[in-house]
Write a structure and sequence with these properties.
This protein has 314 residues and is of the alpha+beta class. The chain has five helices and 21 strands. The strands form five sheets. The protein has a six-stranded mixed sheet with strand order 1-10-3-7-6-5, with no helix packed on it. The radius of gyration is 36 Å and the shape is rod-shaped.
Length: 314
């Protein structure tokens, strides 16, 4: 589609004297640049003022060899790069002309919405008018298949996670002997991430992470400052980061902590909802969320009733 601005440029071309035609590329007097190109090449010379129109207002123009004052060329005569005189005649339009031949002059033009890369080349016949289109938006979407989605999902394998936990517990002894076992692992030691609630204190003292399996191991203590035992469901323990709580895949600890005692507890988090990777950083402020006291009844209500009746001798 020819815009009013292009109509005006064509009218100017029709009025050019015959002598000028020898200094302009025949058939390429008016050039619409290819939006698929990253760097646009524009031919210029000392006899033709080349007009370059951009899709938006120019906010930045920079490039070695660009000068606004033609007299500045004297100070740059020894440079091998071509010298180009430019003038920002309109908000979206540049006029350029070659002052001194040399190697191509590269320029970067930033407009309100895009970045354009130009390469000015000295030529006997120049482009008279150039229109720079908006660059093509690149599609960054990556095609996938249901099979690929399944393949990329984490394998939630309890036996495998206990293997990760065993390595974390014995890391200090195993790593000097076989460093390859811990390639890529991350570790934080001597931590004191504690939270106290109603006489119970849960403390994270060490964090290890195996990024390959998206598994994070928390080594912890539970201290019971109450006068009564704390009996709980280990599988209900959670890890909190900021405003979000994560359910654990593995919690290895006793289910009761007696008054005045401190019991070890190891927790493993792996992945996120839907089988995807969570990618938690170990450099965060983690906290343990202990469940309310009490164990859930693993028997069905009717079986529990029969068991109570048997216990009463009925």
């Amino acid at each position: 589609m020819i815009t009013p601005r292009l109509h005006a440029l064509l009218a100017v071309l029709c009025l050019l004297p015959p002598l000028l035609s020898a200094q302009v590329q025949e058939g390429r007097e008016l050039v619409m640049l290819d939006p698929k190109q990253l760097v646009h090449e524009i031919s210029i010379n000392a006899s033709v003022a080349t007009t370059i129109t951009f899709p938006d207002k120019i906010t930045l123009l920079t490039g070695f060899g660009l000068v606004q004052d033609p007299s500045a060329a004297r100070a740059m005569e020894q440079n091998r790069v071509a010298l180009v005189h430019y003038d920002n005649v309109l908000a979206d339009t540049l006029v350029v002309r070659l002052i001194k031949p040399g190697e191509p002059c590269h320029a970067t033009v930033r407009t309100a919405r895009h970045l354009h890369l130009l390469r000015f080349v000295a030529a006997d016949n120049a482009n008279l008018a150039v229109v720079v289109p908006p660059p093509l938006e690149k599609n960054t979407a990556v095609q996938t298949t249901p099979e690929k989605v399944v393949e990329n999902r984490l394998n939630y394998n309890t036996e495998e996670l206990f293997g990760v936990l065993s390595k974390a517990r014995n890391r200090k002894a195993l790593q000097p002997i076989n460093p390859g076992l811990f390639t890529g692992w991350q570790e934080r030691n001597d931590l004191d991430m504690s939270v106290t609630n109603d006489g119970l204190t849960a403390t994270i003292y060490e964090i290890q992470r195996q990024p390959e399996k998206d598994a994070t191991v928390f080594r912890c203590w539970i201290s019971n400052g109450r006068k009564t035992p704390y009996e709980f469901e280990p599988s209900a323990v959670k890890i909190r980061v900021g405003e979000r709580s994560y359910s654990a895949q593995v919690v290895d600890s006793a289910d009761i902590v007696r008054p005045g005692e401190k019991a070890p507890m190891d927790i493993i988090l792996q992945g996120g909802p839907g089988g995807g990777r969570e990618g938690l950083s170990i450099n965060q402020d983690f906290r343990i969320e202990l469940p309310e006291p009490g164990r859930r009844n693993l028997l069905l209500p009717e079986l529990a009733g029969d068991a109570d009746a048997s216990y009463d001798g009925k």
